[in-house]
Amino acid sequence: MQSLFRSTLAAVLLSSTLAHAQTRPQLPPPQATDPIALKLMQGFPPPPDKTVRLANVLQYPNARWAFHHMRELGPTAAVWRGAGTPSALPQAARDLDVIRFDDGGGQQVGLTDWQRDTYTDALLVLHRGRIVYERYAAGMQPQQPHALWSLSKSLTGLLAAQLIHEGRIDPSAPVTRYLPEVKDSAWGDATVQQTLDMTTSVQYDEDFARPGSGIFQYLIAGGLLPAPASYSGARSMLAYLPTVAKAGEHGAGFQYKTVDTEVIGWLLQRVTGQRLDELLSQRLWQPLGAGEDGYVWVDGSGAQLASVGVGATARDLSRLGEMLRLQGRFNGREVLAPAVVAELRKGGDVEKFKAAGQTMRAGYSYHDFWWIPHDADGSFEAKGLNGQHVHVNPAAELVVVKLSSHPVPNTAYTHVQDRRAFAAIAAALRETGKAP
Amino acid sequence: MQSLFRSTLAAVLLSSTLAHAQTRPQLPPPQATDPIALKLMQGFPPPPDKTVRLANVLQYPNARWAFHHMRELGPTAAVWRGAGTPSALPQAARDLDVIRFDDGGGQQVGLTDWQRDTYTDALLVLHRGRIVYERYAAGMQPQQPHALWSLSKSLTGLLAAQLIHEGRIDPSAPVTRYLPEVKDSAWGDATVQQTLDMTTSVQYDEDFARPGSGIFQYLIAGGLLPAPASYSGARSMLAYLPTVAKAGEHGAGFQYKTVDTEVIGWLLQRVTGQRLDELLSQRLWQPLGAGEDGYVWVDGSGAQLASVGVGATARDLSRLGEMLRLQGRFNGREVLAPAVVAELRKGGDVEKFKAAGQTMRAGYSYHDFWWIPHDADGSFEAKGLNGQHVHVNPAAELVVVKLSSHPVPNTAYTHVQDRRAFAAIAAALRETGKAP
Hints:
Radius of gyration of chain A: 21 Å
Mean pLDDT of chain A: 92
Low-confidence stretches of chain A: 1-25
Number of helices of chain A: 13
Strand content of chain A: 5-15%
Oligomer: homodimer
Largest sheet of chain A: 5 strands, antiparallel
Number of strands of chain A: 15
Strand order of the largest sheet of chain A: 5-4-15-14-13
Shape of chain A: globular
């Protein structure tokens, strides 16, 4: 077990080291990571070196197969799509492959180059609610839910914001009003809103390059990494969270922390008496008219991971994005209150965001687990580890869903190219939108 | 880990011992096993003694919650229902609760008594293709797939029979023509049909009361029971099967063996190059117009368990039963060739069936993993551990699906009552069928 952990850790460290390197060529080139060509998980049984299980998901390029097969790797709860007919997603195909844009390094790249170079598994573009572009790679099928990783946070944030709107949660209340269990932890004197905006100050860091980093304890507690033999910490999420200590003062600055969302996920379930999968199904999947069930990862104690555990199809995420573009209305009904979407788009404190040192995302803020660029188009974004994106651009009447399995944990890895690609798509579609 | 295994084993032994006892009252009475009343898996987190995980599924009454939450307990692959609208299952409700029948012990019981006393989670009755009765208990919802256990074998049998019909598998061929890996095992000189009819002779037994029984090695290899510390055997299904040795001569008599179906499942995947979930989806779920995804349990190596691993909703099983009642046609199309269904209904060798000593099922035979009573109505049945049933009665134009979580592994536990209940339902519906 320990050697497994070590090799997993080695892979993590390697990819993180590479991420910090200046040059791209040290990373496995995308064309060498196609899981079909590599014959990952092919044959009965696949050869041992082509077998992907939970313990070796982080050994790249196993993620390229694993991220659209997560339920085969461990326990998960279904997010039921509901009994109804899926909502309409009309097709209006456009040849966006002709788009060319500067990748930020002075190189002109096309949309297919960008998809390949950012290890894209699914790309779906909605313009005015119609699918204008939809591509899958790495063997992913349209009906397969893809691991959303931290994009899960944004779904949890929507649930929280809606429950706040309904008066069932007070954002200014201390977390302990709902979760007395965390009274001796970092959240012992944090408010709900500080936790939702990640301005809490917690002895926890998300550094994939540091073996003692909080993220590894988190992954072990959540059943996503096998515990090394020497591990004596918590083995379930709800046992782990109360042990996380406070650092400085809450409310001072933004610090990206997966644990904050787990606290909110726990709180939502406590307040409603419903499991996260039920909340996601009743409040998002069913009213959206989702086409497929989603899922939530379940830890060793049966708890659901609100921060990184959700999986969904590209089409269902495009329904979610379109609903947000339309101020909460989709599928002939109000899915979220317009005020919830307005609050989301307002964003958080840009000054506090600077504290995180995310210079690449200068001018952004973070609010209710959404990324707000504060750009001219009023766009807003959900993001997850290894390249998961829901990008909503209201001015361009555009939703882009991009699901990926790139070799670097941090999604900022492709941030510059992604923003340029989203802008190029918006420009191309605006061009179309003009009267003939 | 070892103590976990011991306690699991202890529970198994207890329930088996109780099954052999003469009197029913030693078993937990059904009304004391309701998982909602017991608050199993309720709360965030549920108390430790109310927490159900894979390691304690066999500690009764945890099965009452677990059997309709299996995907939350371990790795599973989705059996996709397809992109289309679910096939119609018209409603024509009948008050079957008025039915009374002799339970075999001289007692008149009603249909609700029988459901309660046999720990039923779902009961669905189709008459002439219409739902006349549908009940759920123990918190199970209509959209939840239930563990089918050995009823999975019957699905695997249908796939095999169809591929034989298409000429892609020769039933008289040695298994080794397709699976050279088993040449030194029990199946080294067995034919495909002997394996499909379980007339192979294998050093393996399905005795839940004997700790060294083959079934425990099977469950460990399949990732369904944690391995005790002392365990040194195979840890994946496809590594385990080639190690199973021959006993006497093949073809002499029927002996119920879960491993035979795993060999066939492996063979189907080898022949088609498709995974079991894909075969089930393309050849059953999609053409049937299933309402929900099913699933297949995945072992530690990623292999899918063809013998016990499938889960499905009661409604989708009723679609399957109705298709078989209609000689393979359902949802406006031929799902299976009529010859496949005819072959199934023909049954196996009644004399060879006697070898198994299943006196309770006198007159039955077993063919292509289906149970054939050879009764006047021409009925045929799929069955699974702890009370899973698809009962098709062509003469009465009847399909009964019963999904349960009774405290005894062997489904024969309630065989007498179940047969009498099925007959009483058939009689009541026949009465309806008469002209007024």
